[in-house]
Amino acid sequence: MDFKPKAIFLDMDGTILNHQNFVSVNTKEIIDTIRQKGIYVFIATGRAVDEIERVVPEGFEVDGVVTSNGMSGYLGEESLFEHSLERKLVKKIIEKAREHKIYYELFPYGSSRVTLKQDQEYVEAEISGDKPESVGINEWLSRQQAIKEEIEWAEKIEGEKFSKFYFFAKSKEQINKWKDELDEIKKEIDFTTSISSHHNVEVMVANVNKATGIQQMLEKFGVSVDETLAIGDSDNDIPMLKLVKYPVAMKNASDHIKELAVDVTEYTCDEDGVYHYLKSKFE
């Protein structure tokens, strides 16, 4: 590869995360090696910041993280930027989610994700029984873990700052109907949606995505998009892959994602694809 990046952005789910929701020690070590060479390495993920620590090996370090599909950015513990959903929008969306019995998680800044206690029964029912064949094992495991350990079943929504909504349905038909409903809500209050599988959709502030978050991070480090490489696998990575000079798709990515890339990893996320790719190019 002739291109020599000054910064690398890595997606998590389906990229550095395998389908059991773990980042390998090999990936941690190749990131360490690349950073020692003076190349910045960042995470750009749909996950909220507090979800990252649970899925990475001990000692995992990067130069910064863009989280919640561009809604927030952090340099270690320091917040570089945070966008927040309007409380009016939060209230409206929860009312509509209840009406359509859509599984939802609301992510306030600085506290656990929230689902209202009055919606607990139908939300838990959505991840009961066997996993549908079309639902990815990583997403299914994440929802089960959220139900058991991570969701705060609240009587009411507290606070004023929210990083995103996450919605899930076992049925593609149900989630697609919900996307149509979100489009109707958008006519009243503008916002951005993003998907990372056929069974989910997320809501962020209007005109915010991974690309806008990356631009803010690059500005902080004095690096241009023409000096940047990114690796991703799904639809929420499209803005990022379109932005950077050297977009790379995972072997496990869909064809329409690979069409945006100038290179494709030789191995999948379950075969340590990012580790092998970075090792071959930068070690």
Automatic annotation (TrEMBL):
Matches recorded under SUPFAM superfamilies: HAD-like (SSF56784)
EC code(s) of this entry: 3.-.-.-, 3.1.3.-
A Gene Ontology molecular function term of the record: hydrolase activity
Keywords of this entry: Coiled coil, Hydrolase
Source organism, top-level taxon: Bacteria
Biological source species: Metabacillus endolithicus
UniProt cross-references to InterPro entries, sorted A to Z: Cof, HAD-like_sf, HAD-SF_hydro_IIB, HAD_sf
Cited Pfam families: Hydrolase_3 (PF08282)
Stated name of the protein: HAD family hydrolase
Keyword Hydrolase applies: yes
